[in-house]
Fold this protein.
Amino acid sequence: MEELVFSPSEFVAVFNQTLEVAYPRVVIEGELANFRVSKNRWQYFDIQDEQASVAFFGTVYQLPGPLEDGITVRAVGTPRMHPRYGFTINLASLVPVGEGALKKAADLLAKKLAAEGLFAAERKRLLPELPQTIGLITAEDSAAAADFIKILNERWVGVEVWLHDAYVQGEQAPDSLVGAINHFNNTARLPDVVVLTRGGGSADDLAAFNDERVVRAVAASRAPTLVAIGHEVDTSLAELAADQRASTPSNAAQLLVPDKQHVLAQLKAAKAALGKALYNNLAHKTKDLESSREYLTSQVFLLLKNCQNQLNSQRRLLHVFDPKTALKRGYAIVSRAGKNIKSARQVKPGDKLGIELSDGTIAARVEGRG
């Protein structure tokens, strides 16, 4: 059998074609070694065990966060033979595995992001008091989604929930969660609040919520964020970056909307208090009006009495100055041609006079004056 003879470039091409058919995608887990970043863009590292080492190449945008040699990682990639640099695996995704490695990676990322101020209390926003729209990010068929919507509807009505189905664990989760956050932040109508939630799980299950890409997307969200992971032992970095965290999906719903039964009880109590206040106010006003009526009545009677006294005084005065009163005492009023005579010089003999007495008038003629 004749042996095949390849040129170097032919061998690389044939070898890569063989790899594409036999191993289009490989997953390798082991200890991270020789990790380095070049030009803030490219990452190079090996994954090794006691007998072998495999080289990897990728971009820094695929990093889940700061890494250091010695931690256990799981890498997914495509095996390739480079014409110049030999065999390597082109990285598709990289995550720490095992509780020790996950915690170490999370601690490194937490230190880095805290120094940037992503967890600072002063940058956190208040959630809306009663949201009208909620952007919910979780697995659509999960218990977390069911619990959140169930409690939300039990406590309040009329809230619009926009559910975005997303992976919440595994290799695809970080990109899926980041895509969901970006989706809500790029909609024409921004939701009042974005909720990321899932149930509990192991450290591996929850690793996506410690991924740097997810944490930064939560911190950069235009809409206020609430992250609710169903565990209490450790707090994920996404929760620290969120405007508020909740302990469970159900607790997230409790934080977002009030209990309608409690609100109805408050309204009932407020109605009773307002009714009582109105009754007391009316009673007070009625009492004030009654006092005012009594006062005004007394003032009117006093005014009438004063007027009556003044009228009586005027009557007495008129009576004193009434000419007829003097006539009754024997006086008379003497007149000539309708004009009263006040002096004897006003008449001469022969004038006709009228003499008015208390009970009638006498006609007289002047015969002389003395």
The chain has a mean pLDDT of 87. The first strand starts at residue 26 and ends at 38. Residues 332 and 360 are 10 Å apart (CA to CA). The longest helix spans residues 260-321.
